[in-house]
Design goal:
The structure holds two protein chains of two kinds. Chain A is mainly beta. Chain A has a single domain, classed as Single Sheet (Rubrerythrin, domain 2), CATH 2.20.28.160. Helices cover 0% and strands 31% of the residues of chain A. In chain A, the strands form two sheets. A three-stranded antiparallel beta sheet of chain A has the order 3-4-5, with no helix packed on it. By secondary structure, chain B is of the alpha+beta class. Helix content of chain B is 36%, strand content 23%. In chain B, the strands form three sheets. In chain B, strands 11-10-9-12-13 form a five-stranded antiparallel beta sheet. The relative contact order of chain B is 0.16. Classes of the chains: A mainly beta, B alpha+beta. Chains A and B meet through loops of A and helix 3 of B.
Chain lengths: 62, 311
């Protein structure tokens, strides 16, 4: 459940582990959830929100 | 001066490049490719894009990047890399053709459009042969085909289960590489550094867990890498090379290269060097490579010798 009072924290949408926005993190950065290992994409910094990162698509790469 | 970065997911590479641009006090604009519709009307160019002096394309999706660059260049936006480079590098068939036509040594390759003709091509190259999707990265869906039975099975699976472009069968000779392949990072006419990627698996891609070490930029590596970069249209690219018995051959060229594992072993500040090049382009540096120097002739001779097969 998302903390509605502290805009620098949120919860993992997969396992509900609390997540703290760390210094230097950027919007659209991919972060692993320390609770369940899910890949999360930062969708907003203020308030801090994340979503499950999209699955790798066929044309992704370098 | 204003620099744009076109992106989707922010990998460590994008983060390092953005940090470097910020460190230099550059007026930086980030454009998220998935959040921007592009008008194709003749007057549809968006000022927010056309104001940038150079746009660094760092999208994770090839097809989105390719089409965005196409639109941006039609608006007169200078993109790094250019559309031509993305188009050639994003398709292994197009890459092989461009390299081959420029006399750059490449593995022998075939393209076929039915499982039957693909089987014929595989048997022509000899076992083992490598089946690759023409579009794809990170070593995904590569198959080393060791015999006719596995060839028939893989081809049937690709034709039946894959989308239509998996029935464009790109088949490459197997290079018996010495447990590693090489990668050279190129910006314009300079090889920035090179690495060797080691793995016990036949796929040595670091995305598959390969180990990275520095590799010296030898004369041969420099010559082949610069020729490959020039053949695909220049810019900032990573050239992947195999050590074949007859010399270095170029497997592919990456136009949105990942480099996070290469900074420490090479000691090369790749984000800084990428930004150096980007700023030069923004100041008017020509992106289209100059014609091949005289040394290209010697390279062509090496390439011709390499057609004998190495599997």
């Amino acid at each position: 459940m998302t903390n509605t009072t502290d805009t620098s924290t949120t919860n993992c949408p997969e396992c509900d582990a609390p997540l703290q926005r760390e210094e230097g993190v950027m919007a659209n950065e991919i972060l692993p959830c320390e609770g369940c290992g899910a890949e999360l994409e930062v969708t907003s910094l203020e308030p801090f929100t994340v979503e499950l990162a999209p699955e790798v698509e066929e044309d992704w790469g370098e | 001066m204003q620099i744009g970065v076109l992106h989707a997911r922010i990998r460590l590479e994008e983060k390092l490049i953005i940090a470097e641009l910020e460190k230099r006090g550059v007026d930086l604009k980030l454009f998220h490719i998935e959040k921007l519709p592009f008008s194709l009307d003749s007057d549809g160019a968006l000022e927010t894009f056309t104001q940038v002096d150079a746009m660094l394309e760092r999208c994770i999706s090839h097809s989105r990047a390719l089409n965005a660059i196409r639109v941006l260049e039609s608006w007169g936006v200078t993109c790094v890399n250019r559309f031509e480079v993305a188009e050639v590098c994003g398709d292994k068939l197009a890459t092989n053709l461009a390299l081959s036509q420029a006399g750059v040594p490449v593995p022998q390759a075939r393209v076929a459009f039915t499982p039957e003709s693909a089987l014929e091509a595989i048997e022509d190259l000899g076992y083992p042969a490598i089946l690759k999707p023409a579009v794809g990265s990170w070593g995904r869906l590569l198959a080393r085909v060791n015999d006719r039975e596995s060839a028939e099975a893989i081809l049937e699976h690709k034709a039946t289960l894959g989308t239509y472009h998996h029935s464009i069968f790109y088949i490459q000779e197997h290079i018996a590489k010495p447990g590693r392949d090489l990668r050279a990072f190129v910006a314009g006419d300079q090889v920035l550094c090179a690495i060797a990627r080691y793995s016990d698996h036949w796929i040595t891609n670091t995305a598959k867990g390969g180990r990275v070490e520095n590799y010296p930029v030898t004369d041969e590596l420099r010559e082949v890498s610069l020729a490959a970069a020039r053949a695909v249209g220049g810019g900032i690219v990573a050239v992947d090379l195999f050590e074949a018995p007859q010399g270095l051959v170029v497997g592919e060229v990456n136009y949105t290269m990942e480099f996070k594992n290469s900074i420490e072993p090479t000691g090369c500040d790749l984000p800084a060097r990428i930004v150096d090049f980007l700023l030069e382009v923004a100041e008017g540096r020509e992106l289209i490579p100059t014609p091949a120097p005289a040394g290209q002739v010697a390279l062509s001779a090496v390439a011709a010798q390499g057609r004998g097969g190495t599997s």
